[in-house]
Amino acid sequence: MRYLRLIGIFWAASAAARMEYRAAFAVSIVAAFVETGGKLFGVYLFYTSGYDLGGWRWQEALLVLGLAQMVDAFFVLIFQPNLRRISEMVQDGTLDFVLLKPVDSQFWMSVQQVGVVGLPYLALALGVVGYAGAASGLSPAGWLVLAVAAAGALLLAYALAFLFATTSIWFVKIFNVVFFLSSMIWSAQYPVQAYARPFRLFLTFVLPVYFMTTAPAELALGRATGGASWAIFLVAIGLFALSRAFWRFALRFYTSASS
Fold this sequence. Notes:
Elements: H1 2-18, H2 22-48, H3 58-92, H4 95-99, H5 105-111, H6 119-135, H7 140-166, H8 168-171, H9 176-185, H10 197-206, H11 214-221, H12 231-251
């Protein structure tokens, strides 16, 4: 409960500060509609030309697209505003003050800021997921599986981004790699079965964005074959545990820039 109260305080203060620029938020709403419309139109073009994206129906492919936008919205909302600050705080030495606080340092670095411009993207993502799920005929059990799998996808995305951001302890200006990860998620906005085998393997085993988009949709739709899709939970938990251990390991090499 203490940590939940801290999140409420952090996000209320951060949102209040960012909403001073209301014009920027209004522009983000328009941009969200334009970008989402463009992505939907891209999927629509495939199906009007007779291409079925790896055997997935139109509504099922939209579910993957909606999940990809949801993960990307969380990058804008939570990951980028916070994880970027690791590099900044290592550079100017203010990470010292975080480490001295009576709160878990990884928690502090992960949730202190919120990027409200990501809210329109998240709202539209949930709308696409809701429409696609209803059009695909998801059962109540399917919706539950989708919610749990989507939570696993977000945990996986966070853990992977935090692992990359933690390397700032050594390389300082490495945060562009996290932006690269965010952009790579959009390479998996279509079901991975639509790609050639080498790229499909890359999106599954090298940069596991398959588990953030296609795998949750497969589980909810009952398309999961074997144990590949279910591995999302093992991958997410494993990477989160690794991110915790790696952060603590990296802090052993942190030397303050302020003293």
